[in-house]
């Protein structure tokens, strides 16, 4: 099953009992190192394998440390929805992260790792009553809201729960996905929602927002922090107990934009929350901690030649992990696992997923060298909203895609 060289190097819940392959990398050739590992997993022949992921735990450690360096005073509560792979959750728990859970299943997955309920924010402003009851049973006592109906449900089923008022993120954050169309109190709803909680006898512990996924206009964080401060002041004016949590949400992408966003956030926190030093600031990063840590290998299972055009079928598609193409605007840039040579001829190629839906297309008119059935394509940076949004259509179960654990150093 696993290459001889494998040996466990990181012990974390979710990783325990699973083999971890250690390999060397340097900054320049991480992709090559991952490719080498993929080759060793496939082994000679490789026809029995189907699409699988490699999770590079060292990348998770690097990303987590990068967050702690840039935003030392902001504890990340990883947004489980982004990728609930237990080894990722376990590694993050070991590193000291908290968690943003949006459903009972997500809470169960995190608690199963031994994480204390106090490290979980139930960050879904609209929850089924049965799940609110479950949160009460297991002691998850902090949840978001943005409607009066939610106040009534929490009061009835979990009166000991504290609330975080989710406010709408700023307009035009130039985000990939705008979450403000669905969630977040508008400015004129803030006071009525604070009053509703007050009447219900529920404590509003703080404020949250989400500027939108992969927000490129980083000043949006400053605007949201200003708005959040306004809510803190509104609550104080209503005579409510001092709020103690500011949740700056997610929307981060690893790289230069993250550093820029962190700079904006630090300045804004100093300016607008500097006089409230007891406020705990948390974040809910999803993509930032998952995207670049996962690589997927998919096997070519079919081929058709049409003149100069090549068509291939692979064993994952838009109903599987590559659902990220539709759900997350992932731009696939598959690379053949086989090494290429200078001057190798390429062909305009279409790559289909395995289901019978003609929309199950991965790339069209994409230049690839000639491949044969049994070759492999590699998809980099596929850890965000990929496996977690796939389905089981046509009997191709996304949950059947194995994840192999790697630790590169
Ligand atoms: N928090 C909430 C409430 C969300 O809805 C999401 C994503 O949908 C996240 C955090 C994670 O966002 P991201 O992956 O952009 O960091």
List the helices and strands and how they pair.
Layout: E1 20-23, H1 30-42, E2 52-56, H2 57-70, E3 74-79, H3 86-95, E4 98-101, H4 104-111, E5 120-122, H5 129-138, E6 142-145, H6 148-157, E7 162-166, H7 190-200, E8 204-208, H8 219-237, E9 245-247, H9 256-273, E10 280-283, H10 287-290, E11 294-306, E12 309-314, H11 324-327, E13 335-336, E14 346-352, E15 361-369, E16 376-379, E17 402-408
Parallel strand pairs: 1-17, 2-17, 3-4, 3-10, 4-5, 6-7, 7-8, 8-9, 9-10, 12-14
Antiparallel strand pairs: 2-11, 11-12, 11-16, 13-16, 14-15
This protein binds pyridoxal-5'-phosphate (PLP).
Question: In brief, what are we looking at here?
Answer:
With 409 residues, this protein is an alpha/beta fold. It is 30% helix and 22% strand. The strands form 2 sheets. Strands 1, 2, 11, 12, 13, 14, 15, 16 and 17 form a 9-stranded mixed beta sheet that branches. Strands 5-4-3-10-9-8-7-6 form an 8-stranded parallel beta sheet.
């Amino acid at each position: 099953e696993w290459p001889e060289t494998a040996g466990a190097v990181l012990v974390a819940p979710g990783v325990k009992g699973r083999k971890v392959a250690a390999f060397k990398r340097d900054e320049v050739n991480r992709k090559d190192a991952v490719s080498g590992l993929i080759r060793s997993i496939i082994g000679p022949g490789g026809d029995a394998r189907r699409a699988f992921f490699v999770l590079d735990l060292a990348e998770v450690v690097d990303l987590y440390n990068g967050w702690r360096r840039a935003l030392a005073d902001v504890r990340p509560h990883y947004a489980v929805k982004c990728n609930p792979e237990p080894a990722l959750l376990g590694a993050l728990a070991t590193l000291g992260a908290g968690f943003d859970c949006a459903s009972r299943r997500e809470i169960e997955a995190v608690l199963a790792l031994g994480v204390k309920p106090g490290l979980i924010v139930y960050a879904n402003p609209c929850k089924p009553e049965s799940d609110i009851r479950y949160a009460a049973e297991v002691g998850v006592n902090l949840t978001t809201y943005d409607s009066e109906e939610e106040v009534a449900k929490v009061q009835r089923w979990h009166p000991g729960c504290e609330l975080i008022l989710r406010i709408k993120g700023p307009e035009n954050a130039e985000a990939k996905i705008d979450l403000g169309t669905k969630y977040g109190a508008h400015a004129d709803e803030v006071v009525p929602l604070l009053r509703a909680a007050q009447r219900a006898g529920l404590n509003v512990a703080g404020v949250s927002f989400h500027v939108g996924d992969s927000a490129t206009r980083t000043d949006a964080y400053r605007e949201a922090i200003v708005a959040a401060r306004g809510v803190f002041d509104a609550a104080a004016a209503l005579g409510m107990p001092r709020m103690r949590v500011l949740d700056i949400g997610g929307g981060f992408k690893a790289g230069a934009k993250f550093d820029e966003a962190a700079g904006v956030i630090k300045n804004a926190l100093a300016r607008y929350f500097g006089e409230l030093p007891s406020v705990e600031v948390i974040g809910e990063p999803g993509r930032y901690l998952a995207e670049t840590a996962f690589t997927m290998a998919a096997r070519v299972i079919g081929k058709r030649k049409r003149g100069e055009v090549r068509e291939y079928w692979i064993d994952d598609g838009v109903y599987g992990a590559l659902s990220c193409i539709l759900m997350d605007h992932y731009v696939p840039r598959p690379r053949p696992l086989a090494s290429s040579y200078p001057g190798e001829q390429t062909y305009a190629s279409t790559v289909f997923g395995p289901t019978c839906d003609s929309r199950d297309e991965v790339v069209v008119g994409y230049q690839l060298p000639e491949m044969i059935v049994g070759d492999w394509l590699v998809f980099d940076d596929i850890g965000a909203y990929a496996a977690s949004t796939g389905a089981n259509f046509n009997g191709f179960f996304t949950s059947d895609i194995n994840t192999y654990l790697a630790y590169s150093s």
